Amino acid sequence: MKIVRHRLHLHDNDPCEYRKSPCHGGKMTPRLLVIHFTAGASAESSINWFLNPQAKASAHLVIDRNGHITQMVPFDTVAWHAGASRWNDLSGLNHHSIGIELDNAGRLQPHGDQWRSWFGRDYHDDEVLVARHKHETEPSGWQLYTREQIETTLEVAQCLFARYGLEDIVGHEDIAPGRKSDPGPAFPMGALRARLLGRQEDSLPVMRTTTGLNIRSGPGVRHPLLPSGPLPQGVKLEVIDQDGDWRRVSVLEAVNGLSDLEGWVHGRYLEPVEA
């Protein structure tokens, strides 16, 4: 990927799909990258909303669940994605940041033996992470992101950081706490930040198990269980890699007398540990 005249170009040097939103401001110099979820039914429905002048909302990019990218505002132009917001010495983050929207239903509510979005679509357990948001006290259901979305987001972010010298990557929840909850606990923000900013191992995201949890030699149930046995509920660990819904972890506590334990667990049964 590369950026030409503040437009994203893909590996074949062609610009990505561009659908210009009328909801934008003037020129700006970006300092941050802000990640959002759309909380919508599809990428197309969110794009159509950003094309509506009455929406008074937009983003620089929308990334579909299959990794397809649509650009809607040039990167040197204010998009209306942040609203009332603050980060360190900056306020009004629309004027200082690039916004990426990921197609994701966001928070889900229990509905029988499934989960339901605010717009009435049902989701199976294997599409959902049950976790407590870092600004909340009770767990909720959250739609998982796809591997394609995470990989595309990282690649785009690396391109943006290199081109604009961005200072950090944050969530909407970080710049508008209490008002916004996206991208939520299902998004591996700590791992992406570590990759983008070259953080050392002590900055890797720390999680804890929400239940007794099998740990395996690889990402998936086809891989054998580790001889340590299951991880107890509440064990702290660092996430060091991701493969779809699975997380490669380094366990920070001894389990059944074993230390320096490393393996793969399903990300649905992890929740963030506050710093």
TrEMBL record:
Substrates-to-products reaction catalysed: Hydrolyzes the link between N-acetylmuramoyl residues and L-amino acid residues in certain cell-wall glycopeptides
Xref: InterPro entries: Amidase/PGRP_sf, Amidase_domain, NAMLAA_amidase_2, SH3-like_bac-type
Domain N-acetylmuramoyl-L-alanine amidase: 18-184
Example GO biological process: peptidoglycan turnover
Keyword Nucleus carried by entry: no
The protein, known as: N-acetylmuramoyl-L-alanine amidase
Phylogenetic placement of the source organism: Bacteria, Pseudomonadati, Pseudomonadota, Gammaproteobacteria, Chromatiales
Alphabetical list of Pfam families matching this protein: Amidase_2, SH3_3
GO molecular function, one term: N-acetylmuramoyl-L-alanine amidase activity
Organism: Thioalkalivibrio sulfidiphilus (strain HL-EbGR7)
Alphabetical UniProt keywords: Cell wall biogenesis/degradation, Hydrolase
EC number of the protein: 3.5.1.28
Keyword Cell inner membrane: no
